[in-house]
Amino acid sequence: MTIRVVVADDQALVRTGFRMIIDARDDLEVVGEAADGDEAVRLVRRTRPDVVLMDVRMPVLDGIEATRRIVADGGAARVLVLTTWDVDEHVPAALRAGASGFLLKDIRPAELVDAIRRTAEGGLPLAPSVTRRMLDQLLRTAPRTAPAEGLEGLSPRETEVLTLVGQALSNAEIARELDLSEATVKNHVSAVLRKLGLRDRVQAVVAAYDRGLVRPRRP
């Protein structure tokens, strides 16, 4: 199955570079490019991609609002936010708008390809340890939203699993921690995502922070 990708960035050179990397893989395909957020939203509605690489700072409509509109449309597309700095004050807002993760623009080609594949599968776009470190940096100073309703709908075990997902542990690591099988952990994670209306594991990490299950570590 080919993973369909839209690249949204106001710099043509960036779009061209990503297209060359993506189209060189047999299982990936760029189905469109957008130079601003409004164009990105329209392109996603027309092409129905699996993954969107979304720059935050774009004219006409920024990447945060574009992400919010894409997610609100209810399609299958998952958004990966592109940023130049590992601590970007706009990225927490993009994650809360529904983005599935974030990437630095200087990411290596192999890492970019791996991140796209992971995101399409609903997994963490980066290694868990990297995701946790960067989320710590990004969310430490970001204002928290009020805890969302629905946590009471989780079983004690599901709450425990959400806490460990919030620490960016993989299913295998959670299984070892709780002495469960990976299949059981996967079922618990799926139940948590469904009950809380979350799209993927990165959104679960943010939810765990928002609900106070996980606290940013000290710098």
Distance between the termini: 42 Å
Along the chain, the helix and strand elements come as: EHEHEHEHEHHHHHH
Global structural class: alpha/beta
* Unreliably modeled segments: none
At CATH level 3, the topology of the largest domain is Rossmann fold
> Can you tell me the overall shape?
globular
Q: Beta-strand percentage?
A: 5-15%
CATH class of the largest domain: Alpha Beta
Helix segment count? 10
Secondary structure tally: strands:
5
Give a written overview of the molecule.
- The protein is α/β, with parallel strands linked by helices.
- It folds into two domains: 3-126, Rossmann fold (3-Layer(aba) Sandwich); 127-219, Rossmann fold.
- 49% of the residues lie in helices and 13% in strands.
- The protein is built from ten helices and five strands.
- Strand 1, helix 1 (12-23) and strand 2 form a beta-alpha-beta unit.
- The mean pLDDT is 85.
Summarize this structure briefly.
With 219 residues, this protein is of the alpha/beta class.
Helix and strand layout, with pairings?
Blueprint: E1 3-8, H1 12-23, E2 28-34, H2 37-47, E3 51-55, H3 63-72, E4 78-83, H4 91-96, E5 101-104, H5 109-120, H6 128-140, H7 156-166, H8 171-178, H9 182-196, H10 201-210
Parallel strand pairs: 1-2, 1-3, 3-4, 4-5
